[in-house]
Each structure stands twice: as structure tokens, then as C-alpha cells.
Amino acid sequence: MRSPFFKNHLESNAKMVDFHGWEMPLQYSGIIDEHKNVRESVGLFDVSHMGRFKIKGEAESQIQHLITNDISKIGDKQVIYSPMCNEDGGIVDDVIVNKINSNEFVVIVNSSNIKKDLDWITENAKSCEIQNVTDDYALLALQGPKAENVLKDAGVEQIENLKSFHLLETKLYDVDCIISRTGYTGEDGFELFFDSKQVQVWEKLLETGTKYGIKPIGLGARDTLRLEAGLMLYGNDIDETITPLEAPLKWTVKFETEFIGKAALEQKKVEKKMRGFEIIEAQRVARKDNKIYDEEKEIGIVTSGSFSPTLGKPIGYCFVPVEYPLEREIKLDIGSKFYDSRLTSTRFYKR
Amino acid sequence: MAEKKFTKEHEWIEKSDQIIIVGITEFAQDQLGDIVSIELPQVSSSFKQNDVMVIIDSVKASSDIYCPVDGEIIEINEKLLEHPELINQSPYEEGWIVKIKPSNPEQIDSLLSKEQYDELVGQNKE
Question: ipTM score here?
Fold first, then answer.
């Protein structure tokens, strides 16, 4: 599959990669350069591979039943992040719910889960009208401290008053657009949802952003940015065998609401916990599935590992038994060599 | 400057007197992307052809570098420990990795010529 901006990526000499069946840009100028550009000024991401569903009708109570977070806490034109769990408390997907009003929602899901989620939501939100609009709408992310300046210069009114996790139905270069103040980078930023035929928006944003040094950003830097910011990647860090309480997503589980998987989450004893790690001294980069040892004993596994361009050292996430506290020293087995490492928070970067 | 030879695993070698200089090719560094660390062998350690002698980490992947011929490491490029990005910037010059004294110099003859290597890389690009 190809995003509406496929041609733009080729014109920008992107290195393309297959991502769950989508041909997407891995990098343009280089992962580290792109990463720093987002932290220091602004970057434009094509995230059109993410699934997009419109849910209409008596939707709010049905969505509440699907997600662990409390949708009643947000008003119209607000956004909430939440896992959706199965009956066992395992994470079916982690999603972003945009509430246009109480009868209309736009849900953003992971590209690897589009079909599964559509089936799951259809089955568990029976009285709603659910539409897969992934191909009808484009999704871009504009992220970084200068993102607001770019949208202001693009003529979007009131953008400076848009709060985090709120959305605006507006015009962007005369195109109808939903702009939410959300992202997956740990920076201030926006996600832009509009008709997929309006491909000129990509070029125009790059043009408007020139004076702020805007660059297109690929999936490589998207991964290192989210890793520094403590954000989960479905399929790596979380999946149906992991509960939100094992992942650092306890804050999204609101037991005062009713949702699928609640009973399991209330009963199940949490035995393992996700932690961050850093490798002491050595600069080796740990990767997914590398094993973690306490002396001779295998105690856990790496779910994500990469190099942090901001910190200039390798970082990652792992699962270890819940009794292993932060700062505890462990050993990482990378290519059959052991490296002294230390457990940390998953939040390596805060703006 | 002596003619370079290549391996299927994207190392290059250049013979000068009794030693060879080893690095990775432009194609390899481009595939790896930003290189962030390197583990170099001990000077005077010995390797057989195709043994893993160096590990390179880029942001997106880890990659083993194989010894192109039997031999002893006589020098390593210590600059790479502080500046692994030299391999990205200058794979054939400043980004050289090790110098080896081959114990079976005839193995060099069976490595790929530039034409053969370019053909191999051309196929990989498809």
C-alpha cells in the first residue's frame, strides 16, 4: 500500500521501507539529523499508514466499554489516549480517540492492527456505525517547538489557543482539516487529518516551514523520538499478552468505569513491569528480544532498544520482575556478551 | 594507491606491502545509516577468514563485520571509538577499520574485484 504522499517521499530521496504492508519513508537526511530537527525546531511526518475509523451514533457509551480510560472526562473537541483490552486484560491495541461530539468520533489505530481493530470494534460496539476511512483521509504529524509557528504562518486561526489533547475543525490552506494538539514524539505538536486527495498540503507545509528549518521526518526518527519520550510501540512493547498495568500505562486504566478486561485487571497479580534501561560505559545498542540477566539468572527481555540522539547513548525498554526497582544494576546479553546496565524510568526525555 | 578487493559481506580491503587495510563499503554504510558505536578487536589477536571481528551499531541495526582473510590484527582505527560516524562520512579513507597481516595471502586473490562487487550491489538494489 502507498500513502497519498508516496511521490513526495521519492522526490525527497527518502529511503523507503516496508512497514506492515505500507511503503513508507524510513529516513530522508538521516535518523539522527531528523531526530534533532524535531527536538530543536520542527519536522513533518507522513503517518498515513495509521488506521482511521469514524464512529457515529450512540457511540460514547460503547467506546467507554472498549477502552480502559475514562471518556466521560473529555468534552467535545477533545482527545484521549487509551488501551483497548480483551477479556484477559491483554492489550488489543492502543488508540487515540478524537471526540468531535458525543455522536461522532475519529479513532486512530496502529497500522498493524487495522483489520483486527475493525473486527473488534464492530463486534463490541454493535449499535454504532463504524467506517474505516483510512484511505479517504490523510494523516500528517507536525512536531517540534516551532510547529505552532508553522501553522500560524499557514493562516490557521486560534492555533495558539488550542490546548494539548484538544482539536480544532478548521481550514489549512483552504482544505477542511481536523487539527489535534497531539503526537508521538514527546514534543509539542499537531496531527492533521484531511481529505487524502489534498496532497498539496505536504509541499505547502514544507514551504511555510522553511524559515523554521522544517524537514520531512521518517519512521526511523519517529521510533527514536517516541522511545526517548517513554511512548509504547504496539507489537514491540505491548501486545495481547501484556496488560496496561505491566506496561507503564496504569494512568490510563480507570477502574471507576466499566470496560472489557476490567475484572481480569482487578484480579491478576502484576508480576512483571516495564522499565527503561541504559547501558553503563559500553556503547552497544540492545535490540528487541535481547535477554536480561541478574548475575547468572535470566530475568527479562528487551522490547525496544535504540540509540538516543538526545542523550548520546543507547537506551531501551524491557520487562523485568516487578520487585526489580529503578537504578538496580542488571546485565544485558547482546550478541552473547554481557554488558553492565541499569534499570531506569521509561521517560528518558522531558521537554 | 593499490586496487581494492571486496567481499560479499560488503567489506573492502586494500593491500599495501605485507598488510591489508579493511573497511566497509559505501553501500554498506549507506544501508546501515547513522553509525553510533563500534567494537574493535584487540591488536595482535588472530582471526580466520569469515570470523566476526568487529561489531558496528547504527541507530537502526547492529552489524557484524567479518574478517576477509586469515590473519593477525596489527592496528585498529582508534579514532572510530570516539567518532564512529567517520565510517559514514569517509568509508574508504578516514573510516578504515583495521589493518591485518594475512597469514594466507593467496586468499586475497579469490575476493571480488570492483566490477564483481558493483554487480553484486546492483543486484541487491533491485
Answer: 0.82
Mean pLDDT of chain A: 96
**Amino acid A283: pLDDT:** 83
**Spatial separation of the C-alpha atoms in residues B47 and B50, rounded to whole Å:** 8
Does residue A320 surpass a pLDDT of 80?
yes
> Which chain A residue shows the shortest CA-CA distance from B56?
A284
- What's the pLDDT at B1? 56
Tens-digit pLDDT profile for residues A83-127: 999 999 999 999 999 999 999 999 999 999 999 999 999 999 988
Domain that holds residue B13: 4-125
- In the three-class reduction of DSSP (H, G, I as helix; E, B as strand; rest coil), residue A22 is classed as strand
Three cell numbers at B107? Answer: 586468499
Task: List chain B residues with CB under 8 Å of A26.
Answer: 60
On chain A, the residues whose CB falls within 8 A of the CB of B55 are 284, 335
CATH number of the domain to which B76 belongs: 2.40.50.100
Q: A335–B36: do the CB atoms touch at under 8 Å? A: no
Give me the residue from A15, A224, A285 closest to B62, CB to CB: A285
Domains of chain A: 6-50+135-228 (3.30.1360.120), 52-132 (3.30.70.1400), 271-344 (2.40.30.110)
List the single residue in B34, B39, B61 with the smallest CB-CB distance to A284. Answer: B39
Task: Give the three cell numbers for residue A227.
Answer: 522511545
B33–A284 C-beta distance less than 8 A: no
Q: Which of A31, A219, A225, A289 to mutate to test the interface with B (most CBs of B within 10 A)?
A: A31
Q: Domain tally for chain B? A: 1
Is-contact B41 B48, C-beta < 8 A? Answer: no
Nearest to A292, CA basis, from A340, A327, A259: A340
